[in-house]
Amino acid sequence: MSDTSIIQIDTASSVAIYEQIANAIRAHLVAGRLQPGALLPPVRELALNLGVHHNTVAEAYRTLAREGWLDLRRKRGAVVLAREAPHATAAAERRFTRHLGELTAKALADGVSPATAARHLEAIAARLRNG
Amino acid sequence: MSDTSIIQIDTASSVAIYEQIANAIRAHLVAGRLQPGALLPPVRELALNLGVHHNTVAEAYRTLAREGWLDLRRKRGAVVLAREAPHATAAAERRFTRHLGELTAKALADGVSPATAARHLEAIAARLRNG
DNA sequence: GAAATTTGTATGTTTGTACTATACAAATAG
DNA sequence: CTATTTGTATAGTACAAACATACAAATTTC
User: Fold this and answer.
1) Are B125 and A118 in contact (CB < 8 Å)?
2) Are B47 and B75 in a shared domain?
3) Number of CB pairs < 8 Å for A and B?
4) What is the number of domains present in chain B?
5) CB of B23 within 8 A of CB of A108?
6) Cβ separation A96–B112 shorter than 8 A
């Protein structure tokens, strides 16, 4: 994460800002771009970068801490943990497919071509298969 | 849609119920399972099925009407329109890829295996390519 | 044609929560 | 031991979701 935090906040979105932040960081974590031991920026620093209140960032950090991704300590900061994925539930998989369908539908409704959408889907799938 | 409205509402989700309903119906529309001329159930009927207030369903219908999917008229009901997709913006495509990445990351974090996730992604991609 | 019924709509209220402001607490550094 | 840097707690404001209730319009029924 270092500093080029490149988290895009969409103020027009109905998704809460702290959730957007948590989602973005989680993506970095899952992708391995944030390794165990890494240190996230202090809540005030990231908040300044993003133009939000530091408590909003803190809420995102706490969300990820609850999921087992982070260890939060005063003065030390937010440290990435080695986290083992839980066993998948059937519900988690159903949620994924449902949201995937709805997200794709929204994209098509917004004019994204089926071919383009398919390309993006396949790109992510390929990345998953390659490890 | 007829009656087996198969809309799953997740009361634990942070997504508003009316949005969940709109998302689900939009997916049906984009997939062509709801053709122009089709009639959606009255707001009170669907609301009863889903266990929510009819105004909540009405808000979902209005959301879709604003997007050009539905024509709403008193006494006649909600009629599916023939809608042409708008021209895609770069923002729409970026939003899609970003959300796609975050959604997949969440699934992996919840224990869904990369292979399984990839399979679902490819399945939707294939459906898009085949038309 | 009048009345009843069936539809979506409008208005007001409550409740939850996102976000912020500000103050606090703890841990490290000097 | 003091100062500073971190996360945390508390309180306030604003907004919006969901509901209850009442309304309006269009069709059906008699």
Assistant:
1) yes
2) yes
3) 174
4) 2
5) no
6) yes
Q: Where are the alpha helices (DSSP H) in B6-113?
A: 17-30, 43-50, 54-66, 90-109
Collapse the DSSP code of B14 into the 3-class scheme (helix H, G, I; strand E, B; otherwise coil) and give the result: coil
Name the nucleotide with the smallest C1'–CA separation from A53.
C20
Are residues B76 and B104 located together in one domain of the fold?
no
Residues A33 and A73 both lie in one domain: yes
Strand D and A35 CB separated by under 7 Å: no
Residues B62 and B112 in one domain: no
Q: Give the pLDDT confidence of A46-91 residue by residue, as tens digits.
A: 999 999 999 999 999 999 999 999 999 999 999 999 999 999 999 9
CA of B16 to C1' of D15 (A): 14
Phi, psi (rounded to 5 degrees) for B10? -105, 100
Q: Tell me which of B80, B101, B121 is where a domain ends.
A: B80
The yes-or-no verdict on residue B3 having pLDDT over 70 is no
Phi, psi of A14 (to 5 degrees): -85, -5
Domain containing B39 equals 17-80
Percent over 70 (pLDDT), chain B = 96
CA Rg value for chain A: 16
Residue A95's CB is within 10 A of a number of other CB atoms, namely: 19
Work out the percent of chain A whose per-residue pLDDT is above 90.
95
Q: Are residues B47 and B96 in the same domain?
A: no
Q: Answer whether A110 sits within 8 Å of B88, measured CB to CB.
A: yes
Report, in ranges, which bases of strand C sit under 7 Å from a protein C-beta: 5-12, 17-22, 25-28
- For residue A9, the distance in angstroms to the closest alpha carbon of chain B comes to 11
